[in-house]
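Provenance and format

Records in this collection were gathered into a single text stream. Each protein contributes a sequence line and a token line. The two records reproduced below are adjacent in the stream.
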Amino acid sequence: MAVKQTAGRNQLGVVAPKFAELNDDVLFGEVWAREDKLSLKMRSIVTVVTLVAKGMVDSSFEFHMATAKTNGVTRDEMAEILTHEAFYAGWPNAWAAFRVLLKVYGEEADSGEGATFAPTFGLGETNDAYAAYFTGQSYLNPLISADEAGVAISNVTFEPGCRNNWHIHHADKGGGQVLIVTDGRGWYQEWGKEPQLLVPGDVVVIPEGVKHWHGAAADSWMSHLAYGVPGENCSNEWLEPVDDAQYPQA
């Protein structure tokens, strides 16, 4: 199993490999992962406030605004944060930040948990065909069929607390699955190992024959792309649910 943040290496790996390493492995891999010290929601608020104070409302600011949304900062909370900060960081800086807020959150008021969650690859329909193998509500948005590209790729979205059962991907040759996390926060766990936190940009390679589960964090939605690695006689074996004692509540 491999879980990695790859944004830095993808964009700057050739030009500035050390910077890319520090971005992926230290900033996001260590600092942002210290949820026992500070929640992701609070880290997002601190980051947004700092960038506004510096007048940095570029594409990176839009990314952090979107991350704040994913990490549970509602539109109304963000509006109040920027209103408060305007008196300390400057009115023009706040105006610029509000333009990004409108782009990321839209103009509609919040209306309940998850109202502002908009997966990058679309929510799709309720995942009724596999509901028996999930605890909580999930959604499925097929993107590419095997007939089109030789491999089927779907976006799977989990409501907070939702996770699939323990399961195994079998194959006589090849097989397994790859997950690419696009939105929110979640967990991946292999049998006999500790759960691994998932955040956007993480890639999980699941070998054939490994018992595992994945799903959203208790306080966050989560979306990932999923596709099966081609192989011979591939099949899924669905097993027991992940009970509350096994599921991370942090």
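Adjacent record:
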Amino acid sequence: MALQNGHSKKSLDIAVVGGGLVGSLEALYLARRGHRVQLYEYREDIRKTPQVRGRSINLALSVRGRRALKDVGLEQHIIKEHGIPMIGRRIHRLDGSTYVIPYDARTNQCIYSVGRNYLNASLLKESDNYENVKTYFNHKLVEANLQNGTMTFLKMDTNEKVSVKADLIIGADGAFSAVRKCMMKQPLFDYTQKYIEHGYLELCIPADENGSFQMPANYLHIWPRGNFMMIALPNQDCSWTVTLFMPFTSFQSIDTEDKLLAFFETYFPDSITLIGKKKLIQDFFGGSPSPLVYVKCRPYHVEDKALLIGDAAHAVVPFYGQGMNAGFEDCTILNHLFQKNNDNLVKILSEFSDARWRDTFEICDLALYNYIEMRDLVTRPSYRIRKTMDDFLYWLLPDFWVPLYNSVTFTTMPYSECAKNRQWQDKVLMYILTVLGISALVGVSFLYN
């Protein structure tokens, strides 16, 4: 297997803990640089197991994630074979009517609905092509000395312990990372975890009797209802993954079939015939709402021996569709630093920590804000007016005025710069509106005098 240009002359032994989306992608990046990679995953091989209920089935792939997949040669395969383009939000009113808010009215860029299992399986399958990648499933990290680069795993199928030593340990093991748990023992390590009061439950709109989509396919469908909402993303089999987000107290209040049907008839009446009453009852009471947590921590490294990436470093709530994309961008940035610093781990890891935390903190905050936007603000005239102004200025001055959503989703501008850009735009618009308001008052005063 050919290695990418500029790979290291000295191969390192690197252990990646976590064989999910980010861990399997990072293993590919490192393998292409010529390093020896051992990939450890707590679960069974996802290619041999059914979808786990409660985990998001499909995800929104945007530019940051696409760039990473392109680097490892998988972008076109994923998009052409499995991605479903979504060109905007289709908003469902209470009366069943809908309207569209395009993501990018100027250049018609889109995001792609992709299956979590399919994408993860594709990354693992690609890593099988590299002789310098060894993957170990059913391996649970139970102990680690990060400074020494040593770890102990428990093989879940045989209950035996395995000792591992690596030049570098990369924790890509999710929001409840075992590697991060070890790192928390380090002095000067800052860590914040917070659950929001809202949870989510996944439902399903099946394909119609002809095997086709029951709703227009190329949209993210949203039922915004103020303090809660429901969304639907299209699947390859023409079904829809429907996710209901609302406070846990609201979930708990729906404890009978009659209450469930009354709730949906009040707030999501058009969805009942799409889902089907029997399936709605079965799916709603067949699971339980899952929590939503965000994590902020820093630094992401321990000397030149260990590093956190993906949700292990910065779990975010899903409302900007950037969790996977931000994790994939970690891999892209890390690859750039390996190239820039000629695989010098001391420089690579410290630069990653110093440069990345501001952006990941920012996307965490932006994701929380976007939940309010999706469930409530999109229905307000002020939102529509601002969106129209942003789209017009973006069309008129595309190199000067990039709306927040576009900069986050369709560029690789650092997340912190996206937020600063929005703050500057707010000030400009406020200045313009103030000037126009004063001018109007002067004009009225002049007419009456």
